[in-house]
């Protein structure tokens, strides 16, 4: 009998002693399951290559969030030339969520591939950074991101059974060890290295959007509904974070 899927993805932060590296790992089956249930709910189905890329992006951003301070909310957007598509993901350790979607229509074609990152913390202005990426693989994106924005090496590995692992360098890290790591090596770290579990966090695929949160985006049309609705009594608005659709009426706007 198949075991039920857990409600949350549990993300472990583990310090690898002597190597001075942080290992962040998780089984993303719960998040990927909720992601597919969400796609069914919004009536979407992505081509396999785009679907895989978005799942990888959700995984690597979750690992990165766990390696960062609790209070941060981080959003990543990858604007690619070929295929011409935007991948979007955002999450927060404080609220324990990760969510993302694809944009395939009306996507601006860049002259190069870019990854845009925005980090926000309460009471502070957003911190933005942009890096150029050469591939369509989020595993390689985050490694470039760590080199350029984090100013320290970081590597991500895909392991069997929807498991992903981030190895992030700490001060005085073992550079040769980190550079030469393979996926097989990473799968055996807990058995072959001295480690200490620092903390665990739990994430789920969730947006939290509601019609009450969507309506303020239409505030500019509150006093001129005819420009927004035309001759229609309602319109459909899509959540920019998860693509869920909401039917908005003139009464809602009022």
Please explain how this structure is put together.
- The chain has helices spanning 29-42, 48-67, 138-150, 175-180, 183-187, 189-192, 211-214, 225-229, 250-253; strands at residues 9-16, 21-27, 73-80, 85-92, 97-103, 114-120, 127-132, 154-159, 163-169, 195-205, 234-238, 245-249.
- The protein has nine helices and twelve strands.
- Helix content is 30%, strand content 33%.
- The model has no long low-confidence stretch (mean pLDDT 92).
- The strands form two sheets. A ten-stranded mixed beta sheet has the order 7-6-3-4-5-10-1-2-9-8. It has a two-stranded antiparallel sheet with strand order 11-12.
- It has two domains: 9-205, Hsp33 domain (3-Layer(bab) Sandwich), CATH 3.55.30; 211-253, CBS domain Like, CATH 3.90.1280.10.
- The chain has 254 residues and is an alpha+beta fold.
State the secondary-structure class. alpha+beta
How many helices? The count is 9
| CATH fold group of the largest domain | Hsp33 domain
Proportion in helices: 25-40%
SSE arrangement, N to C: EEHHEEEEEHEEHHHEHHEEH
Oligomer category: single chain
Question: Which spans of ≥5 residues are poorly predicted at pLDDT below 50?
Answer: none
Q: Could you report the average pLDDT, rounded to the nearest whole number?
A: 92
CATH superfamily of the largest domain: Hsp33 domain
CATH class (first level) name of the largest domain: Alpha Beta
Number of domains: 2
Gross morphology is elongated
Beginning-to-end CA distance, first to last residue: 53 Å
Number of strands: 12
Task: Write down the Rg.
Answer: 20 Å
CATH architecture designation of the largest domain: 3-Layer(bab) Sandwich
- Strand line-up across the major sheet: 7-6-3-4-5-10-1-2-9-8
Strand percentage lies at 25-35%
């Amino acid at each position: 009998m198949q075991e039920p899927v857990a409600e949350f993805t549990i993300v472990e932060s583990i310090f690898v002693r002597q190597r001075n590296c942080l290992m962040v790992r998780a089984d993303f089956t719960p998040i990927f399951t909720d992601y597919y249930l969400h796609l069914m709910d919004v009536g979407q189905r992505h081509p396999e290559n785009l679907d895989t890329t978005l799942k990888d992006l959700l995984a690597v951003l979750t690992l990165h969030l766990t390696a960062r301070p609790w209070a941060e909310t981080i959003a990543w957007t990858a604007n690619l030339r070929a295929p011409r598509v935007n991948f979007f993901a955002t999450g927060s350790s404080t609220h324990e969520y990760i969510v993302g979607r694809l944009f395939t229509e009306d996507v601006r074609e860049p002259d190069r591939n870019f990854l845009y990152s925005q980090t926000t913390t309460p009471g502070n202005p957003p911190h933005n950074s942009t890096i150029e990426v050469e591939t369509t693989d989020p595993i390689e994106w985050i490694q470039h991101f760590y080199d350029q924005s984090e100013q320290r090496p970081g590597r991500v590995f895909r392991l069997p059974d929807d498991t992903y692992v981030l190895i992030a360098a700490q001060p005085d890290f073992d550079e040769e060890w980190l550079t030469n790591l393979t996926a097989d090596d990473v799968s055996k770290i807990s058995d072959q290295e001295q480690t200490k579990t620092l903390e665990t966090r739990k994430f789920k695929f969730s947006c939290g959007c509601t019609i009450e949160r969507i309506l303020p985006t239409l505030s500019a049309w509150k006093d001129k509904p005819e420009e927004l609705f035309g001759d229609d009594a309602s319109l459909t608005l899509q959540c920019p974070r998860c693509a869920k659709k909401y039917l908005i009426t003139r009464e809602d706007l009022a």
